[in-house]
Amino acid sequence: MADDGKRSLFSGGRSGSKKPAGEGKDALYSHEAESHGPIKIDCARCGKTTDVSILDALGRLIRFSLWVPGRDYSHRLVCPACTQRSWTRLRLM
Which of 37, 43, 48, 60 is the Cys-Cys partner for 79 at CB 3.0 to 4.6 Å? Predict the structure, then answer.
């Protein structure tokens, strides 16, 4: 019966052990969690607009991307919404 103490300390418990949805790791890794970053990426392929952080935008630009000045959608990079390489427009908010 000495294990009962350890078991009660390290077990999740029966009542209240379930975290509410959208908290902890679920919120961090959920694709449905909305991030409100200062940069918006508009995708010409899927038509969605995604808010991203400055570091995420820089990472997408540093990885193979193409910039053609004078076009409405002037950056060719991986869209965060559809995860396909497409022509995008970056806007600073």
Answer: 43
